[in-house]
Design brief:
Shape: elongated
Helix content: over 70%
Low-confidence stretches: none
Number of domains: 1
Largest sheet: none
Radius of gyration: 12 Å
Number of helices: 3
Length: about 60
């Protein structure tokens, strides 16, 4: 999660746009909130759900 956060932060610095950087920051905060909710679930469903969530957020 932390490495993807720095990747999004790096992309926002390259794009140098307030709207895009805010959107990336918001998507990271939402993903961390959803992943923290997924931590309540069993480990197998947690790993699958976080993997799919990261793929949706980054490669959407």
């Amino acid at each position: 999660i932390i490495s993807q956060y720095f990747i999004l932060l790096y992309c926002s610095c390259i794009l140098n746009s307030n709207y895009i950087s805010f959107f990336l920051y918001l998507s990271v905060m939402i993903s961390e909130a959803i992943i923290s909710l997924f931590l309540i679930l069993p480990p197998n469903s947690t790993s699958i759900a976080t993997f799919q969530l990261v793929n949706i957020l980054i490669f959407h």
